[in-house]
Amino acid sequence: MPYLSGKETVKEIRRALSNPNIQSDPLRYRNTVLKVIRAMSQGVDVSDLFSEMVKACATVDVVQKKLVYVFLCSYAHLNPELSLLVVNTLRKDCLDSNPMVRSLALRSMTNLRLPSLVEYVEQPLTAGLRDRAAGVRRVAVLGWAKLHNLQPGSEIDATVVNELYSLLRDPDPVVMVNCLRALEEILKEEGGVVINKPITHHLLNRLKECDIWGQSEVLRVLQRYRPQSEDELFDILSLLDSSLVSPHPPVMAATLCLFLSLCSSFPAVSQAALERVRGPLLAACGSGSREMRFTALCHIQ
């Protein structure tokens, strides 16, 4: 396409999006949608193409859907009335046989961030929590946290909270960690997620299934738990022993913080933990990353 001004670019793309010959050719149609995203990324105001892009959403091409969703989430706030059409399309996609399409639809639905559309989003999110695909459940869990942020003063739905608590035992570790994050956000005014003995031991036993940042999140949340006996305390410390010398600095630092929190009444145990992490912490201070060096020095302090 030759160089055109912003308005001329939008007119040119609109003609292409409305051209039956292009619409009948999936590859050309997708490339035209891509031109919209490219123009958007270059600062061109393409909000006038909202109606055409809503129509482009009705496709089986997953790549085209992704592109259209990016556009719709960026401009939905400028077209709240037309956004209702978007939600109807997204709700249909939430029933698609492809789990990738279902997760994309759920994510885009919550990323529209329009309070007026909350009532249309709740049912697909509830269904998403029970979806057979882990990827859809991951998105649905975080979607409830986004929904709560849209209506911070609204009453918390006890049914949703209970379902999120039950998903802490989901076989997928990412769903489990996402539930912790969502509950922390939703129950912020009540002090966050309630950590009792069964939840604590369940999280500790599944710690190694999580990725680095998932482990760090679990260890951070566990700092608010207090063991009910010395035997339980040392059982927990035994489970944390390997994480204390983890090769990953975030996990090692989070474990150390938890150790020191749990062992506040046992200075000898705290001292032993500090001795064990001395080497890794000093090694982190010699890292080539300035951010890593700064963080390691903060932990040492």
From TrEMBL:
It is a peripheral membrane protein. The keyword Transmembrane does not apply. It is found in: Endomembrane system. It holds the Pfam family Adaptin_N. Keywords: Membrane, Protein transport, Transport. Residues 10-285 form the Clathrin/coatomer adaptor adaptin-like N-terminal domain. It comes from the Eukaryota. Belongs to the adaptor complexes large subunit family. This is AP-4 complex subunit beta-1. It comes from Characodon lateralis.
